[in-house]
Structures are given as structure tokens and as C-alpha cells.
């Protein structure tokens, strides 16, 4: 850390393609007179990994007042272009044989290109400046992936510069301008490192993998390369590597003991020196390999530059603490603070500054600075001898306190998170996010994607995201999240600044051949406001169903069937799904097919106002059911129907598919269990592999050769087993994702059916879906099974259990939360899920939330019996108020009061019957009416009863009464077979007192008969003989 800062003279941020930050490295900066201007003027050449190339000419300019100022201007950019390949290194020299001008050499990963920078003065106009062009002179195709570039007058040539490219495998390829000379592997170079050329000795210094410097004569390298042609393959080169290394011996070798970061050659002739930067020191060597000095460093260096000043070596070292240190050989002369960590730096002269430091950061920050300090121009003002008015000062201080208080923002306002609605606009003053889904689908032709049943690519839907800002916003980042197997063309966008409106276009497609659990896409937009406060906006949109299904022929037979009843006439299916209906579509039957060839059939019945979904895969019914419900609500909620028809009511007549749910849970759990076993096998094989390696290393180090005793075969066999196990792990991970998607679909289907059957309130449904979550992450540490088991157990014990007190708070004797570890089996989880679903559906129990305390001074409960409005029988007499305290069903308090409640119920009923009875009809009497009422109450109080003979069943229409089979009060909830009882048996035993209390208090569910969700459907309403369906 330094008290002084490097003075900024000229700076700019180099941007890559699409306005993103440019990524640069040590070789991406060059300073030279690239356009051969006379008199010579240096230019800055910057490249990046995105392929962008820019040439700058920084210079000072004078203002209208005649003052000389510095800074970046648009006319300082001489050339800006984008090459087709990443730029690894830049070099300037005499690389063309036809002239002795400076040319630009660009090193790409697979080729070496030489360009000429020329000035087109003929077509340029004076008011618009000069026009620079980049012309390709020649290029060489590299047989190996390149790492670094070295230039110099190899072989002692005059007026020319040759090129040497070091590959990733340590081979050195030399190019004599337009022609390739040779390619040879360097000994002791398993990994590439920095290179340097000593012109006086005509030698190349290589930083080897053994942390030593090796100096080779150029002629010796050329002679050693005679048996290693460049056209040879890698195996031939590796074989000749050992042969070449025997013939190629270094002139001198110097041990450093640390990895080499960079090397620079300073001086000329006999005074040339080699400066080497390592991880913890820098050193200076003569061209003969003898150390001049070594300086140990107490910081982590990033890059260096060296130059001669007189007879002394001046070294500039930049550290990772953003500090620049200037050394006179080993003596520290100056230290200054930099605005960023540079990856490379150099020294040059420009108009207006001599000896300027050019630094380039890893993210494209380019700066020209100088060392020094600015003199203080502050002059102490004369003292004011006037008297102080304390009253006026107090008033001014009070105003300032108000301003400070008004401008203070708490953490909540700074970390505000705004959530959007599906497909809508975010009402945000700083930024508005719109997401528009395209109407037309197109075939996906990009990378990835699957093939449909007809052999062509899957469809893709375009989505346009429009960002509108009313004020400049910085660091805008848009992240797109979609559940597998759906994929997006690009999931992250970074916009440096938004001033007006920006638009992003992405495409969604199906990437894997299994069922998607959801079509919801989430756009998360984060940005910084003009005041620096972070904001997050979340926008959800629904992708079209046609993205994952296509029309097909309906099927009569299926393994899984689901029936949905409504109170509205059945709608023609082509009207609900116009984009999926064929030309000769049937109004009462439609077939859908996923792209993994799973078929779903939708049937409708005009006579019973029911819809049936059937398929051989239960998970395939979820998306179609969700889309059917959404389109029915949209159809009957159109502006033309509002106010003319009743509210659309839906009910599920099919039982919950718990057995299929348990099968999916077992399949997902077996995948996780197999993953654990494969990981254990991989650890065992890796341990064995390392043990065999140690044994072989011991034998190789032994001076007396000993037989390997088949250790080499064991090593090879273990290595093949490791590769096989890793392939199995990858396949199992893909299967885990597919099983997780199947389980998510089935869980969502079960939850939706439970909501339809019980007409659950939104807050109750949110509590249920939070416990039995359909979101399944493919994690191994805390999987879905243990998390769901903990949530369901908490819900049963603290909300629906015996120890629940009034208000929904858990008792003090509640057990501690369980540890989230992977269970041995899924028995407890399936039993807990069975208890939860049994309490929600069979016992018709609503989830009890934490409500505010009720007034216990008066009894506010009423007994209400909901009957069909078409029933001609007399309505029963309302029950008298029972108890002033609201008791949750199945709680310990309700179990204790069940006996007293039965006695009070009979007494209050006999006392209020005479005063509340309706007028008698001529065909009835008081005794008969009481008997009929008592019979009705008895029939309605239990969970299921026989139908009343006085009620005309034909008048009930399409919504029949609840199931008529009375359950056994002592019957335990249905659990999967072959499961052992656990500590949660008290939760199961809690159902019987609950049913007794319900029978005593005769409290029915809240919805009316129109909203009744438990619907008994005849088996033959969707037979093939029904003329309304086919």
C-alpha cells in the first residue's frame, strides 16, 4: 500500500464483442510505430480473447483557452476491427521479406497471421482525419495449439525478424517470415513457459518445467530438428522428443527454484541482461547465465518491465495489491497505487508525456500514467472576526438534520426485491421489464436439442425481453431460468449501461427426451439505480404447450385415467386447443403426443359435463391437466360471458394416485442410492490407483532394477475402471434428472387433484405445497426425500397433530427438528405423506394456520348443512351454538371434549327444535319433520353416509353427493405395504378421535354442494359407445 497514486494521463476501457468486458492476458499489449509514420510516433495495440483488435494514439490537445489537457477522445482510435479467432499475443517487427517496414504479428490458437497497417490518405478527408486499414500479408496454419510467441533476428540475420511459436506440448516451431523452417520439441519442457532471445549469443532461453533456465543455441536447435519434421503426428514427435533431447544440450542451465512468470531482455551487445520474474523474487542474469543480483519479494507479483538507465537496470514490478514498485536494481526507489491489477505493462513516449507507463488489466482497462505528485494549491483563507449568531446556527443545523434524515435509506429499501406477474409489466420506476412470447414456432437448428418422433428437430419458440429505463442504470444483468429438459439459447446477459430501451431475443427448446414438469420461465433482472442501490426484478412467463407436444390420434385404452367435472357445459376441444386440433378433429376427443412419444388423450362428455384425461404415463397428465384448467377458466372468464353465467367450479372425481406417487419416490431414491454407491466405488478405485502409483514410483527410483510384478497391468486396469465408473456416474446423473422430472410431475398432479377435491383455500394450498414441494433439485447432500420428510413431519406434528394449541403454535414438548441425512429407505416418508393426504382428503380437514385469538365470550360456531337447491325436502333446523372456542379437528383438546360435546349437542337440539322449525307442509307432521331432520343430521355428520330416500337423486344433476361408503373409525390410513411402524404412529392414531369429534359436532366443509370436489363418477360415462364423445 502506498500513499502516492499513479497520475492518470489517458485511460479507456476496451470492450469486446457485444459490449462485454474484454478479457486480456500478458501478451495482448504492444507499443510501436505500427504504421511506419515519419517522424516516429508510438501507438498502442490491444487485442483480446474475443478477437477484437484496436490501435490507439494517445496525445495531449489544447482547449479553446489554449490550455494543454490530456484524456481519451474518440479520434484517438486509429483502427478497430474484430478478427475471427482469439488473440493470444501481439508482436511488431520486420516480418515481411519484401520490405523493412514494421508489421503486426498476431498469434491465434491455431494459426499465426502477419498484417500490414497502412494509411489511406487518398480517400481521407482532412476534417474526418486519416483512415487506417489492416491488410493480411500472410499466415501460417499451426499443427499444434499455440501458447506463446517469440521474435528476433534468429541466426544473426540482418534487417529481418523471424518468428518462433511455442505450443502447449512444449514444441518450438520456427518460421523464417513467409516459410516454415522447422519444428522440434524442447527437452525438460512438459509445460510451456516464457521465452527470451539473446541476440549477442544467438541463443533462446527457455523456462523449463523443472524451474530452471535452459539456454540453447539457435543453430543447435535447428540441427536437432532435422529428424523431427513438422508434418509428423504427435506420437512421432513424442518418440523423437527423447532422441532430440539427447542430442540437444543447453549452453548453460541456471536453477531458480520457483515457477517463472515473465522474462525481459534489456540492453544490447555485451551489456545485455536477462531479467526474470518468479513467484517470490526477481533476478538479473548476464547472457552467460551468471547472476548479477536477486531480490526477494514479500508480496505476490503480477507482471514486470525492465529498462536500462545509464549502466543500471531499472525494474518495474506490479503486484496483486494494485501497487507499482520501482527498483534501481535491488533498491526500492518509488511505490505508487494503481487503479487495477495489470497483467502487462510497458514504458513509452507520447506527445505531451515522456516515459509514460502503459498498463493493461485483465478486464480490458487500458491506462497511460506517470509517477509523481500534484502540489497542493490550497491557501488558508483569512480568519473571519465577525460574531457568531448561535440562533441562526441552530436553525441551520436543524435543517441539515432533516435533510440527512430524509436522505437516509434503510437496508430494506436498498435491498428491495420486486416480483412480477406472469407475462406482464413490472411497475417499477427505475426499470420496466416486458417479456413477449412469439406466436410462431420454428425448428431448432442450434447446438443441442433432440429429435422429434417424425425425425425432424424439435420446435423452438422465440421470446423477446424488452428493458425500458427512465434513467441511466448500471451493471444490468438478466438471468434466465427454465426447468429441464427445456433449454434456452443463452441464459445470462450482461449490459454495462442502459439509458433508454434494450431488447434481448432468446429461444427456448426441448433438449432431452423426457417429460418437462413446468413451462414457466423466470427472468431475474438485477441492476444498480442511479443512486447505487441494488434492485432485482423477477418476471415469469408461460411457454406455449405446443413447444413440447403435438397433435396425434386419440386412444381409447390407457393405464391411467383422470376425470374432471364442471358445472358448465362441456366445451368442444378444438375450441380449447385450436393450435393442436387437426383438420378432421373430433369435438369430443383429442390426442396429444410428447416428443418422447408419450401420448395423452382428452375426452369430453356433453351429457355429464365432464372431461377425462388418459395416458399410459401418469406424469404426462400433469401439463395437459394444468393447461386444460387454465383454458377452461379463460374460456368461461371472457368478457362476453362475465355476468351471464355462474362461476366456473371444477372437481376431481378420481382418487389420488398415491401408489404411483410412491413408485416414483422409490425410483428417484434408488437413483440417489446408486449414485452414493458409485461414488464410493470411485473413491476406492482412486485410492487403489494412487497406491499402485506409489509402488511403481518406488520401483523406478530403486537403483537396482526389479521386476514390476504386473503393477503396470494393475495400474492400467484400475485406470480403465475409473473411466468406466465415471461414465456410469454421468449416466446415472442423467437418469436422476429424468426421474426427478417424473416425480415432480406426479407430485404436482397429486397436489392439484387434492386441491380440486377439497376446494382448498389459496393460503392452505400454499402451506401444503411448501411441505410437499414439487421442486426437485438434483443435489446429493440434502435430497428431496429428507427435506420433504422433515417438512411433512413438521406439518403433521405442529399444525395437524395432537400437541397443537389454539392459534396453531406447537407445544413445548415438541421434539427437536430431525437431521437432514439421506435415509436408508423411503418407508417413513411414504407413511407421512399418506397420513398428510389422508387428513387433507378423507377427513375433509382444512389446514389450520396461526389465526388471531378469537373472542371467547360468546359461541360463534354454527352447524350448517349444505343441500342441493333442487332438493324438495324441507331444510333441517340449524344447530345451536356449541362451544365458544374454536377447536382444531384431531387436536388433544378436541379429543378430551368429545364426550361432553355429544351431550350438549343433544340437549341444545331438543331445546331449539320447536322454535326454529319451518312451516309444516300438509303431507308432514311435527314428529315426522323431527325424525327427518334427525336422520338428515345423522347422515351428514359422518364422513360418508347412505343417501336420503326423501331426496330425488335425479335433481342433483352432474354433481352427485359425496362417497357413500362409511369408513371404519378405527381404520388406519393407507400406507404402502411392507413398511415398519415408526415413532410417528401417534399421528396415525389421531385420526379416530378426529372422526368422532366430527361426528359429534356435525361440522361440514365450508363449500356448498356446487363446490363439492369429491365426485362419484360412473365407470361407463366415457365408454366408446357414447355418441357424444366420438
From TrEMBL:
<dbReference type="Pfam" id="PF23338">
    <property type="entry name" value="PTHB1_hp"/>
</dbReference>
<feature type="region of interest" description="Disordered">
    <location>
        <begin position="868"/>
        <end position="1030"/>
    </location>
</feature>
<dbReference type="InterPro" id="IPR055363">
    <property type="entry name" value="PTHB1_hp_dom"/>
</dbReference>
<feature type="compositionally biased region" description="Low complexity">
    <location>
        <begin position="230"/>
        <end position="247"/>
    </location>
</feature>
<dbReference type="GO" id="GO:0034464">
    <property type="term" value="C:BBSome"/>
</dbReference>
<feature type="compositionally biased region" description="Acidic residues">
    <location>
        <begin position="1017"/>
        <end position="1030"/>
    </location>
</feature>
<dbReference type="Pfam" id="PF23339">
    <property type="entry name" value="PTHB1_CtH"/>
</dbReference>
<feature type="domain" description="PTHB1 N-terminal">
    <location>
        <begin position="1"/>
        <end position="375"/>
    </location>
</feature>
<feature type="domain" description="PTHB1 GAE">
    <location>
        <begin position="458"/>
        <end position="540"/>
    </location>
</feature>
<dbReference type="InterPro" id="IPR028073">
    <property type="entry name" value="PHTB1_N_dom"/>
</dbReference>
<feature type="region of interest" description="Disordered">
    <location>
        <begin position="228"/>
        <end position="248"/>
    </location>
</feature>
<dbReference type="GO" id="GO:0060271">
    <property type="term" value="P:cilium assembly"/>
</dbReference>
<dbReference type="InterPro" id="IPR055362">
    <property type="entry name" value="PTHB1_pf_dom"/>
</dbReference>
<feature type="domain" description="PTHB1 platform">
    <location>
        <begin position="544"/>
        <end position="637"/>
    </location>
</feature>
<feature type="region of interest" description="Disordered">
    <location>
        <begin position="807"/>
        <end position="827"/>
    </location>
</feature>
<dbReference type="InterPro" id="IPR026511">
    <property type="entry name" value="PTHB1"/>
</dbReference>
<dbReference type="Pfam" id="PF14727">
    <property type="entry name" value="PHTB1_N"/>
</dbReference>
<feature type="domain" description="PTHB1 C-terminal helix bundle">
    <location>
        <begin position="760"/>
        <end position="840"/>
    </location>
</feature>
<feature type="compositionally biased region" description="Pro residues">
    <location>
        <begin position="960"/>
        <end position="979"/>
    </location>
</feature>
<dbReference type="Pfam" id="PF23337">
    <property type="entry name" value="PTHB1_pf"/>
</dbReference>
<protein>
    <recommendedName>
        <fullName>Protein PTHB1</fullName>
    </recommendedName>
</protein>
<dbReference type="InterPro" id="IPR055364">
    <property type="entry name" value="PTHB1_CtH_dom"/>
</dbReference>
<feature type="compositionally biased region" description="Low complexity">
    <location>
        <begin position="906"/>
        <end position="925"/>
    </location>
</feature>
<dbReference type="Pfam" id="PF14728">
    <property type="entry name" value="PTHB1_GAE"/>
</dbReference>
<dbReference type="GO" id="GO:0016020">
    <property type="term" value="C:membrane"/>
</dbReference>
<dbReference type="InterPro" id="IPR028074">
    <property type="entry name" value="PHTB1_GAE_dom"/>
</dbReference>
<feature type="domain" description="PTHB1 hairpin">
    <location>
        <begin position="655"/>
        <end position="753"/>
    </location>
</feature>
<dbReference type="InterPro" id="IPR036322">
    <property type="entry name" value="WD40_repeat_dom_sf"/>
</dbReference>
<feature type="compositionally biased region" description="Polar residues">
    <location>
        <begin position="937"/>
        <end position="948"/>
    </location>
</feature>
Amino acid at each position: 500500500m502506498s500513499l502516492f497514486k499513479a497520475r492518470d494521463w489517458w485511460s479507456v476501457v476496451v470492450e469486446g464483442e457485444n459490449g462485454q468486458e474484454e478479457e486480456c492476458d500478458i501478451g495482448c499489449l504492444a507499443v510501436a510505430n505500427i504504421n511506419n509514420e515519419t517522424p516516429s510516433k508510438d501507438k498502442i495495440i490491444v487485442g483480446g480473447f474475443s478477437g477484437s483488435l484496436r490501435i490507439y494514439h494517445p496525445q495531449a490537445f489544447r482547449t479553446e483557452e489554449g490550455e494543454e489537457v490530456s484524456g481519451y477522445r474518440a479520434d484517438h482510435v486509429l483502427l478497430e476491427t474484430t478478427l475471427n479467432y482469439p488473440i493470444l499475443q501481439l508482436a511488431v517487427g520486420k516480418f515481411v521479406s519484401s520490405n523493412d517496414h514494421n508489421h503486426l504479428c498476431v498469434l491465434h490458437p491455431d494459426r499465426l497471421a502477419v498484417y500490414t497497417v497502412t494509411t489511406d490518405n487518398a480517400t481521407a478527408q482532412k476534417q474526418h482525419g486519416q483512415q487506417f486499414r489492416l491488410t493480411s500479408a500472410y499466415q501460417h496454419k499451426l499443427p499444434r495449439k499455440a501458447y506463446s510467441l517469440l521474435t528476433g533476428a534468429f541466426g544473426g540475420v540482418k534487417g529481418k525478424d523471424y518468428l518462433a511459436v511455442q505450443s502447449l506440448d512444449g514444441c518450438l516451431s520456427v518460421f523464417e517470415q513467409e516459410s516454415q523452417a522447422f519444428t522440434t520439441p524442447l527437452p525438460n519442457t512438459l509445460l510451456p513457459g516464457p521465452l527470451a532471445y539473446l541476440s549477442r549469443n544467438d541463443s533462446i532461453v527457455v523456462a523449463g518445467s523443472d524451474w530452471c533456465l535452459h539456454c540453447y543455441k539457435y543453430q543447435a536447435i535447428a540441427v536437432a530438428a532435422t529428424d523431427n519434421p513438422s508434418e509428423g503426428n504427435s506420437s512421432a514427435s513424442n518418440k523423437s522428443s527423447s532422441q532430440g533431447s539427447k542430442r540437444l544440450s543447453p549452453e548453460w542451465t541456471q536453477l531458480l527454484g520457483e515457477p517463472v512468470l515473465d522474462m525481459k531482455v534489456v540492453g544490447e551487445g555485451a551489456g545485455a541482461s536477462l531479467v526474470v520474474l518468479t513467484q517470490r523474487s526477481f533476478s538479473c542474469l548476464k547472457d552467460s547465465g551468471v547472476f548479477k543480483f536477486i531480490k526477494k519479494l514479500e508480496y505476490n507479483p503480477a507482471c514486470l518491465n525492465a529498462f536500462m538507465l545509464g549502466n543500471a537496470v531499472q525494474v518495474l514490478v506490479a503486484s496483486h495489491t494494485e501497487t507499482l514498485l520501482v527498483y534501481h536494481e535491488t533498491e526500492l526507489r518509488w511505490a505508487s497505487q494503481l487503479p487495477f491489477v495489470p497483467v502487462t505493462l510497458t514504458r513509452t513516449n507520447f506527445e505531451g508525456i515522456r516515459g509514460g507507463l502503459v498498463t493493461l488489466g485483465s478486464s480490458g482497462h487500458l491506462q497511460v500514467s506517470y509517477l509523481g505528485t500534484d502540489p497542493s494549491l490550497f491557501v488558508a483563507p483569512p480568519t473571519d472576526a465577525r460574531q457568531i449568531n448561535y440562533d441562526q446556527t441552530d436553525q441551520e443545523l436543524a435543517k441539515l438534520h432533516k435533510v440527512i434524515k430524509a436522505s437516509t435509506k434503510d437496508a430494506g429499501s436498498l435491498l428491495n426485491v420486486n416480483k412480477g406477474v406472469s407475462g406482464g409489466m413490472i411497475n417499477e420506476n427505475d426499470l420496466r421489464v416486458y417479456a413477449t412470447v412469439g406466436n410462431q414456432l420454428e425448428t431448432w437448428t442450434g447446438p443441442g436439442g433432440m429429435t422429434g418422433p417424425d425425425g425432424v428437430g424439435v420446435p423452438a419458440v422465440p421470446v423477446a425481453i424488452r428493458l425500458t429505463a427512465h434513467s441511466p442504470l448500471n451493471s444490468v444483468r438478466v438471468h434466465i431460468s427454465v426447468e429441464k429438459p427445456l433449454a434456452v439459447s443463452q441464459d445470462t446477459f450482461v449490459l454495462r449501461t442502459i439509458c433508454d430501451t434494450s431488447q434481448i431475443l432468446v429461444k427456448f427448446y426441448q433438449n432431452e427426451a423426457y417429460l418437462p414438469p413446468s413451462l414457466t420461465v423466470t427472468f431475474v433482472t438485477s441492476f444498480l439505480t442511479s443512486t447505487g442501490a441494488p434492485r432485482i426484478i423477477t418476471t415469469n412467463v408461460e411457454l406455449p404447450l405446443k413447444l413440447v407436444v403435438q397433435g396425434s390420434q386419440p386412444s381409447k385404452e390407457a393405464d391411467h385415467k383422470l376425470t374432471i367435472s364442471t358445472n358448465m357445459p362441456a366445451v368442444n376441444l378444438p375450441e380449447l386447443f385450436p393450435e393442436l386440433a387437426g383438420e378432421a378433429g373430433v369435438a369430443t376427443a383429442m390426442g396429444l403426443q410428447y416428443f418422447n412419444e408419450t401420448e395423452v388423450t382428452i375426452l369430453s362428455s356433453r351429457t355429464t359435463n365432464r372431461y377425462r384425461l388418459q395416458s399410459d404415463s401418469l406424469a404426462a397428465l400433469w401439463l395437459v391437466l394444468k393447461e386444460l384448467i387454465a383454458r377452461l377458466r379463460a374460456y368461461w372468464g371472457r368478457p362476453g360471458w362475465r355476468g351471464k353465467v355462474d362461476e366456473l367450479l371444477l372437481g376431481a372425481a378420481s382418487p389420488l394416485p398415491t401408489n404411483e406417487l410412491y413408485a416414483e419416490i422409490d425410483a428417484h431414491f434408488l437413483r440417489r442410492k446408486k449414485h452414493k454407491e458409485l461414488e464410493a466405488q470411485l473413491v476406492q478405485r482412486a485410492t487403489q490407483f494412487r497406491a499402485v502409483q506409489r509402488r511403481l514410483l518406488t520401483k523406478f527410483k530403486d537403483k537396482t532394477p526389479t521386476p514390476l510384478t504386473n503393477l503396470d497391468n494393475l495400474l492400467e486396469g484400475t485406470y480403465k475402471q475409473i473411466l468406466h465408473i465415471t461414465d456410469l456416474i454421468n449416466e446415472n446423473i442423467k437418469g436422476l434428472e429424468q426421474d426427478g422430472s417424473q416425480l415432480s410431475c406426479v407430485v404436482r398432479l397429486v397436489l392439484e387433484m387434492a386441491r380440486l377435491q377439497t376446494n382448498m383455500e389459496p393460503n392452505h394450498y400454499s402451506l401444503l405445497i411448501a411441505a410437499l414441494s414439487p421442486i426437485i433439485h438434483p443435489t446429493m447432500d440434502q435430497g428431496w426425500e429428507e427435506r420433504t420428510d422433515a417438512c411433512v413431519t413438521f406439518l403433521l406434528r405442529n399444525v395437524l397433530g395432537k400437541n397443537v394449541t389454539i392459534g396453531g403454535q406447537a407445544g413445548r414438548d415438541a421434539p427437536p427438528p430431525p437431521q437432514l441425512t439421506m435415509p436408508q429407505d423411503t418407508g417413513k416418508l411414504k407413511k407421512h405423506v399418506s397420513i398428510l393426504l389422508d387428513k387433507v382428503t378423507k377427513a375433509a380437514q382444512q389446514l389450520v394456520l396461526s389465526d388471531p385469538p378469537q373472542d371467547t365470550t360468546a359461541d360463534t360456531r354454527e352447524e350448517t348443512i349444505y343441500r342441493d337447491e333442487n332438493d324438495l325436502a324441507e331444510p333441517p333446523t340449524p344447530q345451536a351454538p356449541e362451544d365458544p372456542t374454536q377447536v382444531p379437528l384431531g387436536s388433544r383438546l378436541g379429543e378430551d371434549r368429545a364426550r361432553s360435546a355429544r351431550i350438549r349437542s343433544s340437549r341444545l337440539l331438543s331445546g331449539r327444535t320447536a322454535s326454529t322449525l319451518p312451516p309444516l307442509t300438509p303431507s308432514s307432521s311435527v314428529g315426522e319433520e323431527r325424525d327427518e331432520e334427525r336422520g338428515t343430521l345423522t347422515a351428514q355428520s359422518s364422513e360418508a353416509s347412505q343417501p336420503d330416500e326423501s331426496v330425488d337423486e335425479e335433481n342433483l344433476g352432474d354433481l352427485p353427493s359425496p362417497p357413500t361408503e362409511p369408513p371404519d373409525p378405527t381404520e388406519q390410513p393407507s400406507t404402502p405395504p411392507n413398511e415398519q411402524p415408526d415413532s410417528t404412529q401417534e399421528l396415525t392414531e389421531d385420526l379416530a378421535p378426529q372422526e368422532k369429534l366430527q361426528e359429534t359436532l356435525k361440522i361440514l366443509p365450508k363449500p356448498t354442494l356446487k363446490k363439492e370436489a369429491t365426485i362419484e363418477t360412473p365407470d361407463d360415462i366415457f365408454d366408446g359407445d357414447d355418441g357424444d364423445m366420438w
